[in-house]
């Protein structure tokens, strides 16, 4: 592969500069990720001797395909001034077919710099389908830990199973990432993470270990928050052990944001600068491809589709960037809230995903020939409303706040005669197994899809009194427990889906042990969840 022509890197952006420049960032910081070329180890051995471990944030892989996977690391330089003085640095990435690292199948030299937070993204191509690979990075005198990844089966492969973990909501302050220690030890094909990887917020009542710094607003501050999370050894082990497939929710930016509106009703241009900083920091720290929107970090695409042979198609959706504003907002404080009698909920133009993403998902589902259609998104789709004297309540930040968008999604399953649709979610800090109908909780409306929602890795859940009210008011929900933290194990086969909610007591401690809270299955050709 020939060396590609280098783009001119941007000047280093400090906090003061970022507010003016975020919306107009050029492609240069991200175009470096495309400047990959097969090379020799000497290409990455710039005369550089590290006094610290530049790979202290670990390694990760993600977005696997049959012939490629994204490999990630980030050089941890002592401070931003040192990074800027270092200038662009070459980093060697090597991929091996064996754990002993004797059978090298590819090597790439790529450049990184302060403009991209010293992050490294290598799209390792030319790999074989359904294979495990091992990888590492080298920069000067330093070598990274070894990570393990795998490619997906080829599109026409008949696959016996897909084993994965569903996870979300890992508030650093509210517990230890012991769940990731468990995940790292699982025999898995991938980790599916559906949002709230970091938290911008803090609640002093629930602090087990503290965030560094205040609420992030700038690129440097979001970078620091991501670095603190990646500093957790259990999280690094989970990334190194398995490829991750990811989407985001709200706390990667700010709680309950919707499109270009934050809960403070900030000027949209002010909030978009903050969103641009958060999105750029997210991409700098995750094993994800940088898409065509990279020239404007305020509008980066995260939604994607991945095939697992003929067994499953998996969609990862973006519930935040394109959604309509919250219905019937409080004029003093934005974000989600519980409403009754809100006529705006009946507006058919309102969308959780945005109309373009809705059409993309609909077309993909209707064209899919896979046995299972897995829709992974940030929150709970089944209704959680309560009967009140003023009518049924709706929480406007969830799917109850976008009922006609939910109805369009489920009605399409009926009209297209789709079978074996599984909706996966997170966000609500509780384990949920539910049946999905076009008309929620109406026995006359057939069950058309199945839903599994994972509890949080650490983030605190609601109280049992409210949980009991939700269960009693929503017969579509077969299981709902908010009292424990953890993750959800899933195995998809041609015959069905098996799941287990793996949990521990709240808050999660370093010595926490995990057990099975409940198990649910979905039978091929029969919509709905079954306990056991």
Structural overview:
The chain is of the alpha+beta class. The chain contains 10 helices and 27 strands. The protein has helices at 15-21, 28-31, 80-86, 178-184, 219-230, 233-241, 268-285, 355-367, 403-415, 464-473; strands spanning 37-38, 59-62, 68-74, 89-96, 104-112, 119-125, 132-139, 142-143, 147-150, 162-167, 190-193, 243-246, 304-308, 312-316, 338-339, 372-376, 387-388, 391-392, 394-395, 421-425, 431-437, 447-453, 477-481, 484-492, 496-505, 515-523, 530-531. It has a 10-stranded mixed sheet with strand order 6-3-2-12-11-10-24-25-26-27. It has a 7-stranded mixed sheet with strand order 13-14-16-20-22-21-23, covered by helices on one side. Helix 4 runs parallel beside helix 6. It is globular, with a radius of gyration of 23 Å. The protein starts with 14 loop residues before the first helix and ends with a strand. 51% of the residues are buried. Residues 1-46 have low confidence and may be disordered.
């Amino acid at each position: 592969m020939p060396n590609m022509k280098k783009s001119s890197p941007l000047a280093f952006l400090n906090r003061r500069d970022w507010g003016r420049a975020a919306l107009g960032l050029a492609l240069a910081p991200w175009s470096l990720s495309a400047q990959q070329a097969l090379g020799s180890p000497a290409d990455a051995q710039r005369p550089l001797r590290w006094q610290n471990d530049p790979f202290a944030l670990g390694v990760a892989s993600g977005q696997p395909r049959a012939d490629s996977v994204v490999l990630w690391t980030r050089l941890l330089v002592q401070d931003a001034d040192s990074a800027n003085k270092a200038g662009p640095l070459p980093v060697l990435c090597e991929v091996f077919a064996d754990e002993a690292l004797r059978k090298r199948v590819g090597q790439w030299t790529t450049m990184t710099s302060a403009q991209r937070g010293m992050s490294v993204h290598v799209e390792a191509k030319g790999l074989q389908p359904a294979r495990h690979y091992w990888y590492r990075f080298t920069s000067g005198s330093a070598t990274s830990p070894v990570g393990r990844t795998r490619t997906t089966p080829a599109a026409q492969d008949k696959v016996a199973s897909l084993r994965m973990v569903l996870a979300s909501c890992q508030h650093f302050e509210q517990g230890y990432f012991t769940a990731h220690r468990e995940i790292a030890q699982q025999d898995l094909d991938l980790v599916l993470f559906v949002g709230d990887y970091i938290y911008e917020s803090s609640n002093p009542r629930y602090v087990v270990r503290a965030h560094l710094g205040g609420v992030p607003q700038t690129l440097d501050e979001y970078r620091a928050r991501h670095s603190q999370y990646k500093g957790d050894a259990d999280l690094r082990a989970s990334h190194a052990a398995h490829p991750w497939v990811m989407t985001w929710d709200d706390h990667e930016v700010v709680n309950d944001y919707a499109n270009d509106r934050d809960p403070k009703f900030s000027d949209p241009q002010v909030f978009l600068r903050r969103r641009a900083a958060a999105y750029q920091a997210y991409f700098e720290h995750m094993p994800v491809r940088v898409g065509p929107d990279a020239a404007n970090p305020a509008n980066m695409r995260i939604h994607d589709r991945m095939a697992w042979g003929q067994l499953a198609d998996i969609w990862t959706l973006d519930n935040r960037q394109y959604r309509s504003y919250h219905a019937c907002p409080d004029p003093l404080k934005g974000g989600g809230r519980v409403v009754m009698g809100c006529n705006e909920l009946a507006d058919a133009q309102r969308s959780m995903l945005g109309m373009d993403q809705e059409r993309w998902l609909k077309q993909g589902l209707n064209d899919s020939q896979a046995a299972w259609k897995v829709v992974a998104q940030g929150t709970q789709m089944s209704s959680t409303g309560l009967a009140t004297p003023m009518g049924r309540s709706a929480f406007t930040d969830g799917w109850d706040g976008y009922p006609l968008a939910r109805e369009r999604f489920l009605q399409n399953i009926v009209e297209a005669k789709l079978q074996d649709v599984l909706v996966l979610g997170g966000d609500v800090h509780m384990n949920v197994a539910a049946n999905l109908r076009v008309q929620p909780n109406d026995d006359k409306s057939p069950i058309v899809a199945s839903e599994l929602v994972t509890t949080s890795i650490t983030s605190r859940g609601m109280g049992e009194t409210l949980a009991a009210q939700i269960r009693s008011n929503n017969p579509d929900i077969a299981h709902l427990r908010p009292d424990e933290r953890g993750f959800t194990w899933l195995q998809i086969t041609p015959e069905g889906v098996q799941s287990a909610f793996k949990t521990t007591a709240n808050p999660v401690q370093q010595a926490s042990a995990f057990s099975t809270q409940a198990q649910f299955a979905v039978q091929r050709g029969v919509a709905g969840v079954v306990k056991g």
